[in-house]
Design goal:
alpha+beta; Arc Repressor Mutant, subunit A; about 45% helix; four-stranded antiparallel beta sheet; Alpha-Beta Plaits; single chain; 3 domains; globular
């Protein structure tokens, strides 16, 4: 999982430098809207909404924005978003898995196909690459004053399979079925993650040279800049050398 954790680190750095906050908020608002339509506006009885609100707080979304998003989701005239995913290959056979939330499927598939074509990739059929990834719960927690040694056993008891830490963040991985119990444990411990989500972790990674890495990253950047795209996962191995090149 270390390769994926490095990718998460890149996303955090990149996000702090150049991501538009309005796009981040827009994606969170979509998630809140879907959650409200699916399970109602009360977070106490709607776990998905509770998680979306927690992620909104982790992204420093103002309370007024969160309240408006919940009200908007409750409106019968609110957009009906559909969740879908696409799979394909980037240059050098790198597997790409894209998760989307959209109100216009034709627009989304057209954009996804055009990005693959533009950067030398190819769109595959749904289900063709899912076997290359494991779905895991991933929690990113600001380190702050947390003593990881004191916390470790609590997290393992709640289902943590792997715990990684750097100077700024603690990243906790769980099996998909342990996502809920870990979320509950963190609430009990009064620990607010920056982000909590189910991610697709590659079972194996593929080594590439720096030129290929740059091409793949350009493709990933285009996907992530699309408003319909919520997550992009890949199985490219990010070595220290490539990390330096991409910083």
């Amino acid at each position: 999982m270390s390769g994926h954790n490095k990718w998460s680190t890149i996303k955090r750095k990149k996000g702090a430098l150049d991501a538009k906050r309005s796009k981040i908020f827009s994606r969170i608002i979509k998630e809140i809207t879907v959650a409200v339509k699916e399970g109602g506006p009360d977070p106490d009885g709607n776990p998905r909404l509770r998680l979306a609100i927690a992620n909104a707080k982790g992204a420093s979304m103002p309370k007024d924005n969160i309240s408006r998003a919940i009200n908007k989701g409750s409106d019968k005239d609110a957009a009906n978003y559909l969740e879908t995913s696409y799979e394909g290959y980037a240059p050098n056979g790198i597997a790409i898995f894209i998760e989307c939330t959209t109100d216009n499927m034709q627009r989304t598939i057209s954009n996804v196909r055009s990005y693959f074509n533009k950067f030398g990739g190819s769109l595959g059929t749904n289900g063709s690459l899912a076997f290359l990834f494991d779905r895991k719960g991933v929690f990113t927690i600001p380190k702050g004053e947390i003593n990881l040694e004191d916390l470790e056993m609590e997290l393992i008891d709640a289902g943590a399979e792997d715990i990684q830490a750097d100077e700024e963040m603690i990243t906790v991985y769980t099996a998909m079925e342990d996502f809920g119990p870990m979320l509950k444990k963190l609430e009990e411990l009064k620990i607010e993650p920056e982000n909590s989500e189910l991610q697709r972790i590659p079972k194996n990674t593929v080594k590439v040279d720096k030129d290929t890495a740059r091409k793949v990253m350009k493709l990933i950047d285009h996907f992530e800049e699309d408003d319909d795209v919520t997550n992009v996962f890949h199985n490219m191995e990010l070595t220290d050398e490539i990390m330096e090149e991409l910083d």
